[in-house]
C-alpha cells in the first residue's frame, strides 16, 4: 500500500451461533447486552442465526439478491415435499 504502515487490527470475538436443523439453534454471545457472556438457544437463537445469514448475503451480494434469496427459500419450502428418511 505504497509503503504506508497498516492500521492496528484487534480481533474481537462476538460469539458464535450454530444451526441445529429447521427449528433449533444454540449460541454463545460474548461482550453483549448482559454481562460478558450470554448463551442463547431454541427459537431465539434460530431467529438470530437466520438474521445473521441474511445480513451475510446482503453484505456479499446486496439487498436485492438477499430479498430474492428469501423469496426463493420461501418458495422452496412451500413446493418441496417434506421427506423423512428413518
Describe the structure in your own words:
The protein has helices spanning 43-61, 63-79, and strands at residues 15-19, 25-30, 37-41. By secondary structure, the chain is α+β, with helices and mostly antiparallel strands. It has one domain. It has a 3-stranded antiparallel beta sheet with strand order 1-2-3, covered by helices on one side. β1 (15-19) and β2 (25-30) form a beta hairpin. The longest helix has 19 residues, at 43-61.
Report a brief summary of the structure.
Helices cover 42% and strands 19% of the residues.
Helix/strand order, N-terminal first: EEEHH
The number of E-state strands comes to 3
What is the mean predicted local confidence, pLDDT? 80
% residues in beta strands: 15-25%
Keywords:
86 residues; alpha+beta; three-stranded antiparallel β-sheet; 42% helix; flat
Secondary structure elements and pairings:
Elements: E1 15-19, E2 25-30, E3 37-41, H1 43-61, H2 63-79
Antiparallel strand pairs: 1-2, 2-3
